[in-house]
């Protein structure tokens, strides 16, 4: 698979050119409203003094970094606010390749394509570890694949695309593997608010110098266009203390700083949004999962019910997860999903569907009719 070319846009552009109505189940853009604090923050910011419209501190507004640090139980010196989780992951992976020995990045199959694209961008050797039949990454398989050449291990929980969620035991093992092989564990936790299994555990709970946790507010607050993410690096006083300074420098050279009003609005929302907002989002998605999985049953499909996140992967009888078949679904069923082959080999017969559309029932009916 050519991971240097964005794969999502291939499908989205094909769907946009279709001569029929198409339900978009490709993009991960939430279709619900953000917390009211986001809108309140933006309204207030519009009346701010002139100096508030200038560059933000490069590593992020101090008050936002302090709020993040308090919530994650870390010192504020470890937090860098980034332009989404994408930049956070890039800074973490790049820093890991620089700091730790070896030139290999260990990834999961199926893999979120942007991880593989970054590994290719960094000209790193890549080792792929396939998930098990239930879509989980087995720590024993990771340990067997790791070696002295491994410098970075990437884990995503809740996972895109499988929906797997890793608890305390599994996360502790992933961290131990990184420490054993003198590598960096990059734990992408962007879907942490969408845990239906009730066992999500952050890698930060291990308090290891071999961990960077990345996250963003794009999904949890339904603000993908704001591009406010962050990374929590090892303590600057520890053996991997150079990682946070390197990340800060790269972030400054690339972006100077992030959007000041977006950060201001996110901070306001963090301080004013009740847990019920996130619970309501989870309940909405659980209903959609029920509806969509019911349609998959009717279509005779195999699928993994997601433990977290908002994606479902399904395999239909004699209908591989190729780009050609996804295009056929767009043309003949009016439903756009992502081909499994875009995520690697182990789920190349599957198709990934994003449940962030109010047209879930309609899409489910179309799929059931297409495969009847």
UniProtKB/TrEMBL annotation:
Keyword presence, Transferase: yes
EC nos: 2.6.1.-
Domain of life: Archaea
Molecular function in Gene Ontology: pyridoxal phosphate binding; transaminase activity
One Pfam assignment: Aminotran_1_2
GO biological process, one term: amino acid metabolic process
Record-annotated Aminotransferase class I/classII large domain positions: 21-367
EC primary class: transferase
Coiled coil spans: none
Keywords from the named record: Aminotransferase, Pyridoxal phosphate, Transferase
Presence of keyword Transferase: yes
InterPro entries, alphabetized: Aminotransferase_I/II_large, AspAT/PAT-like, NHTrfase_class1_PyrdxlP-BS, PyrdxlP-dep_Trfase, PyrdxlP-dep_Trfase_major
Cofactor dependence: pyridoxal 5'-phosphate
Family: Belongs to the class-I pyridoxal-phosphate-dependent aminotransferase family.
Quaternary context: Homodimer.
Name of protein: Aminotransferase
């Amino acid at each position: 698979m050519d991971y240097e070319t964005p794969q999502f846009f291939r499908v989205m552009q094909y769907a946009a050119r279709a001569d029929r109505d198409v339900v978009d189940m490709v993009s991960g853009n939430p279709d619900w409203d953000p917390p009211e604090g986001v809108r309140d923050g933006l309204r207030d910011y519009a009346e701010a003094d002139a100096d508030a419209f200038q560059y933000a501190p490069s590593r992020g507004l101090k008050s936002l970094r302090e709020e993040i640090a308090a919530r994650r139980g870390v010192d504020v010196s470890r937090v860098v606010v980034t332009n989404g989780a994408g930049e956070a992951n890039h800074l973490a992976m790049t820093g890991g390749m620089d700091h730790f020995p070896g030139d290999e990045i260990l990834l999961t199959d199926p893999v979120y394509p942007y991880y593989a694209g970054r590994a290719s961008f960094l000209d790193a050797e890549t080792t792929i570890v396939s998930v098990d039949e239930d879509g989980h990454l087995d720590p024993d398989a990771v340990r067997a694949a790791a070696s002295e050449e491994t410098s970075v291990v990437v884990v995503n929980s809740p996972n895109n695309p499988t929906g797997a969620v890793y608890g305390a035991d599994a996360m502790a093992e992933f961290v131990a593997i990184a420490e054993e092989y003198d590598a960096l564990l990059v734990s992408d936790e962007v879907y942490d608010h969408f845990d239906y299994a009730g066992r999500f555990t952050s890698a930060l709970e291990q308090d290891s110098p071999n961990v960077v946790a990345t996250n963003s507010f794009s999904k949890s607050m339904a603000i993908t266009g704001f591009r406010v993410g962050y990374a929590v690096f090892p303590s600057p006083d520890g053996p991997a203390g150079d990682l946070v300074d390197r990340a800060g420098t790269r972030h400054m050279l690339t972006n100077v700083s992030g959007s000041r009003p977006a950060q201001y609005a996110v901070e306001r929302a963090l301080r004013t949004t009740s847990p019920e907002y996130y619970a309501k989002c989870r309940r909405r998605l659980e209903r959609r999962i029920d509806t969509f999985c019911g349609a998959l049953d009717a279509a005779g499909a195999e699928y993994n019910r997601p433990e977290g996140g908002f994606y479902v992967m399904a395999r239909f009888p004699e209908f591989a997860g190729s780009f050609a078949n996804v295009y056929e679904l767009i043309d003949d069923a009016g439903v756009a999903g992502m081909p499994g082959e875009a995520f690697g080999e182990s789920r190349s017969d599957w198709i990934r569907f994003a449940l962030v559309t109010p047209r879930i029932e309609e899409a489910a009916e179309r799929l059931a009719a297409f495969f009847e």
